[in-house]
Specification:
With 376 residues, the protein is mainly alpha-helical. It folds into two domains: 126 residues, no CATH class; 231 residues, no CATH class. 62% of the residues lie in helices and 3% in strands. The chain has 13 helices and four strands.
């Protein structure tokens, strides 16, 4: 659905923060060559956290913040909360469907389709956080948040894994991996592993916690009876405390994106809160907006560009061209023709990804000038 809203009424800092996040997501998802990637642009091998590992939780955090600003007025003026929940369910279904479409395209082999994924996780987190926002008193958010994180810690570290006999946090033998193989089966998990899924069933629970943390921070930003300086101070403080708790928890429950551990939720969520507070102070409070437009154009159409940026490389790969006597996809042909001969392997890979970012920026800028937002 395409709309042309008044962009002046949006929270600019949130759009900037979302834009930075989704641009970074596209950058790390589209290197010119997967065999040559600079270390900060790769995920941690297992435990630990690189800058790339922060991108997805930042986006889910933003989902939570956005729910507060998108649904507050509707919640206050609606007598039928069931209608709001139904609307959230419909949006989640569309997001989930788009994720499945990307998994299926271009061969549409339902026997091996990966059921879960990035857009699917966004859909699930959005729905549950929206329901919590609509139905639960904000004062109870902290109980839900810590209940989820402590509960997940207990599940992962105390419950013995069937067929293994003990609780563990290893790639293929942890409880989440076992559950993915049981329910999704190896045909419908992440194709790079076949035995576990980084967006698996059990780890979706703490991912909802990430969105819930965004709900709580969004509630602070939305307060009308609190000074801006107090809002920023609170968010900075809570963000810093979350980072500290995450680092301490890491000693016994390691920070791990693939498992979406509770320490990871605290650490990444804390950094996201600090980042948003900084953007809010600079942009919405101090009024420094001249540098923001390149990021805003990504932020206002984030889901659209994420979906399209995943689809276009697949389409290019279907177009076959000749490269030194070998038939290759158009994506490979472009990279080998324009980047490989002119850069070192790592710089060629990075240059290809940056070019992709710039092309999409131009498209999004044209949409932004026409006040076009594609609402999913």
């Amino acid at each position: 659905m395409t709309q042309t809203p008044n962009l002046k009424h949006r929270l600019r800092s949130l759009d900037v923060f979302r834009g930075i996040t989704v641009a970074a997501m596209i950058l790390v998802n589209n290197p010119g060559d997967w065999g040559h990637i600079y270390a900060p642009l790769e995920h941690a091998a297992w435990n630990g956290c690189t800058p790339t590992d922060l991108i997805f939780p930042f986006f889910l955090f933003i989902v939570g913040v956005s729910i507060v600003f998108a649904l507050s007025s509707k919640k206050e003026h609606s007598e039928n909360h069931q209608q709001l929940i139904l609307s959230a369910l419909k949006r989640s279904a569309v997001l989930f469907g788009l994720g499945l479409f990307l998994s299926l395209f271009p061969f549409f082999d339902f026997t091996t389709v990966r059921i879960l994924g990035v857009l699917q996780r966004i859909a699930i987190v959005y729905f549950f956080c929206a329901v919590i926002f609509i139905k639960i008193n904000p004062k109870a958010y902290w109980k839900w948040f810590f209940g989820i994180l402590v509960g997940y810690w207990a599940i992962m570290t105390l419950i013995p894994v069937p067929d293994i006999g003990y609780a563990n946090l290893e790639k293929e033998t942890n409880l989440g991996a076992w559950l993915d193989r049981l329910i999704l089966t190896e045909n419908h998990t992440w194709k790079q592993s076949k035995t576990w899924d980084p967006e698996g069933i059990l780890s979706t629970l703490p991912a909802i916690g990430t969105g819930l943390f965004g709900l709580m921070i969004g509630g602070i930003l939305k307060k009308k009876d609190q000074a801006e300086a107090d809002k920023i101070a609170w968010i900075f403080t809570l963000g810093t405390l979350a980072v500290i708790i995450g680092l301490i928890w890491d000693l016994t429950f390691p920070i791990n994106k693939s498992l979406w551990t509770s320490s990871y939720v605290m650490y990444a969520g804390g950094l996201a809160a600090i980042g948003l507070a900084l953007c809010y102070w600079l942009i919405d409070v101090k009024g420094y907006t001249k540098f923001t437009s390149p990021f805003v154009v990504y932020g206002v159409n984030a889901i659209t560009v994420f979906f399209a940026s995943g689809l276009i490389p697949r389409i290019l790969s279907l177009i076959k061209l000749d490269l030194n006597g070998t038939e290759v996809g158009a994506k490979v042909w472009l990279y080998e023709t324009f980047y490989t001969p002119n850069f070192s392997p790592y710089n060629a890979s990075l240059a290809g990804a940056i070019t992709f970012i710039l092309i999409w920026w131009f498209i999004l800028w044209m949409m932004y000038r026409k006040n076009i937002i594609i609402k999913v």
